[in-house]
Amino acid sequence: MITVETTPAVEGCRTCGLVAHGHGRQERILHDIPAFGAPVRLIWRRRRWVCPEPSCPGATIGEEVPDLVEGGARLTTRAVWCAISQLRYEHGTVEGLSRQLGVDWHTLWNHVRAKLTDMAADPAVWRG
């Protein structure tokens, strides 16, 4: 297990634009690519902010780091791309890759399928 967190930054409310106040952190466990044959877990200490305007519907804002994880995914971006690469070039199976990542095959397939759907809509994304 590896604990990661980002450096402090100023965040604005995504609804009204006011500068938000720190509201602590929330730990999320993410599955990453295996290291030395063992599944890797990242504990992401995700920042949270709260909008200072009481009437704002934005309320609480959660940190987003698309280079690490997309949306509410349980797999890191790197793990998803690694799985896609294994499926494309190494003839891996979703079940075998899910076993290596330490997740259920449905979890892996849902993330991979979403990325493949996006890639199918934009052929420029497919690289050799």
Task: List key phrases describing it.
4 strands; four-stranded mixed sheet; elongated; 128 residues; 30% helix; alpha+beta; 3 helices
Helical proportion?
A: 25-40%
- The SSE string, one letter per element, is EEEEHHH
Anisotropy-based shape: elongated
Number of helices: 3
Mean pLDDT over all positions: 88
Unreliable stretches (pLDDT < 50, length at least 5) are none
State Rg.
17 Å
Q: Largest sheet at a glance?
A: 4 strands, mixed
Strand content: 25-35%
The number of distinct structural domains comes to 1
Taking the alpha carbons of the first and last residues, their distance comes to 33 Å
Could you explain the architecture of this structure?
With 128 residues, the protein is α+β, with helices and mostly antiparallel strands. The chain has one domain (2-125). It has 3 helices and 4 strands; from the N terminus they run E-E-E-E-H-H-H. It has helices spanning 77-89, 94-101, 105-121, and strands at 2-4, 21-35, 38-50, 60-62. Strands 1, 2, 3 and 4 form a 4-stranded mixed beta sheet that branches. A hairpin with a 2-residue loop joins strand 2 and strand 3 (38-50). Helix 1 (77-89) crosses helix 3 (105-121). It starts with a strand and ends in a 7-residue tail after the last helix.
